[in-house]
Design brief:
The chain is an all-alpha fold. It has 12 helices and no strands.
Length: about 220
């Protein structure tokens, strides 16, 4: 069976009156603060947060828990992991409750809900709120861009250019932080007089290395 798209799920499971209770709570709080007559939803949201940050946080936590139990949220796939959007909302609830998330980050979603936006716009705002930005892990190329620029890698050098004196610094740059330099006695300690020394020596002979100055 083919998975349904987000738009199909949203269309088949409308919010309907699922957010009406929250809208009434929001309106009541705005009335208490004397800003209920404003017709500008974004302005109401900003004034509510600024006027009563603690109460506003409780109200927003109520919104997140309300969204979490709406059937649509339990059917929409998470854009963070294998779970559902409902699970992402639960995680965001904990972050907001422990002050790890900023209350103001909910502004765009509140504006959509209070302004009576259609379901797709509301759910897109929810996704934007709880979806983590994708971070590309740093690579050797990212690191090289911050360090001394390299004109080429050791694998790109051939012929006369490929001599040890020119390669040593290049190789050390490529394996930066992975090796130690000037470790005297390392070869004698770990390679000479071992049971496998003759085998290792034969392998070295077989590959015919281009040795310069005994290296």
């Amino acid at each position: 069976m083919t998975d349904r798209s987000d738009s199909d799920i949203i269309a088949s499971k409308p919010i309907e009156d699922g957010l009406d209770r929250f809208r009434r709570l929001f309106g009541s709080r705005c009335k208490d603060l004397g800003i209920s007559e404003l017709r500008d939803a974004p302005k109401q949201v900003v004034l509510l947060i600024e006027a009563a940050s603690t109460d506003a946080k409780d109200l927003i936590l109520d919104l997140i828990s309300t969204l979490q139990v709406i059937p649509t949220a339990r059917s929409l796939r998470s854009r963070n992991d294998r779970g559902t959007l409902s699970a992402d909302l639960a995680t965001f609830y904990l972050q907001l409750d422990s002050n790890e998330a900023d209350v103001k980050s909910v502004f765009p979603l509140l504006e959509q809900i209070i302004g009576g936006a259609p379901d797709p716009d509301i759910w897109n705002a929810v996704f934007a709120l709880v979806t983590k930005p994708r971070v590309t892990p740093p690579t050797v190329f990212n690191k090289a861009a911050l360090d001394t620029p390299l004109k080429s890698t050791s694998s790109s050098q051939h012929g006369k250019e490929q001599i040890h004196k020119k390669l040593d610094e290049r190789i050390l740059q490529e394996i930066n932080c992975c090796v130690y330099n000037n470790t005297k006695g390392f070869y004698e300690k770990y390679f000479e007089g071992k049971s496998w020394s003759s085998t290792a020596e034969q392998i070295v002979r077989d590959v015919h290395p281009q040795a310069i100055d005994g290296r």
